[in-house]
Amino acid sequence: MGKLKVKKSDVWIDMTPMSDVMVLLLTFFMLTSTFVKNEPVKVNQPQSVSEVKIPEKDVLNIIVGKDGKVFMSMDNQNSVLAVAQDMNDKFTLNLSGQDLKKFQTDPMWGMSLSKLKNYLALPAEKMTETITGPDAGVPLDSINGGKSEFQEWVTSAVDAVEDLKIAIKADSDTPYGSVKKVMSELQDMDQNRYYLITSLKTGEE
Questions:
Q1: Is the pTM of this model over 0.70?
Q2: CA distances from 100 to 14, 38, 108, 185 (A)
Q3: C-alpha pair distances (Å), 107 with each of 37, 80, 197
Q4: Which of 34, 35, 101, 111 is nearest to 71 (CA)?
Q5: What is the radius of gyration, based on Cα positions, of the chain?
Q6: What is the predicted pLDDT for the residue at 30?
């Protein structure tokens, strides 16, 4: 008796729904992710037991290094561009469109207004080297007896972003006097609400 041959049929699974789900998930994470900027100036934040969450958007970060130098950054590049354009118009800095674009994409800013244009003309690697050098830092001295450059930057940021939050991030080795100076500058502008960024202290520390 001859063998009975069973016809084999291929099993076909439609992967289209799974592909659609994967694309939707990927799009969701891309649109909701917050990318961390690689800040040239690193600070080792002091520790505390506070668990107050810092807002993730519309924040002006004020970074105070261990040498007391002040730097600033914002999470939204469009807001950064608006701030730069306002300062450019206010102080006639003569920044070109290319200068403004470099300022917009820079992780942080921290140069005096008189040196800003020359700083933005540097190659990217030189910019990183310069902003960590001895001539860096936003000046806290008043301009002609009025506001300081620091206060002018804060004013432009407040004007550019509605309901702007201010956060101060200092190194654990930063002298208290340097942080107090920044706080005094903000208080003189009636900016009395701000966050102090710290690392969470664990129970073992």
A1: yes
A2: 50, 19, 13, 26
A3: 6, 10, 18
A4: 111
A5: 25
A6: 76
Question: Would you give the DSSP letter of residue 37?
Answer: P
Per-residue 3-state assignment (H helix, E strand, C coil) for 125-187: HHHHHHHCCCCCCCCCCECCCCCEHHHHHHHHHHHHCCCCEEEEEECCCCCHHHHHHHHHHHH
Strand partners, 48: 200
Q: What is the pLDDT of residues 44-67, one digit of tens each?
A: 666 655 566 777 789 999 999 989
Structure tokens that stand for 177 in this block: 């006097």
Residue type, 155: T
Over the stretch 113-151, which tens digit does the pLDDT of each residue have?
A: 999 999 999 998 899 899 989 989 999 988 877 899 999
Tokens of 203: 């129970």
Structural contact between residues 136 and 166, judged by C-beta atoms closer than 8 angstroms = no
Neighbour tally for 91: CB within 10 Å: 15
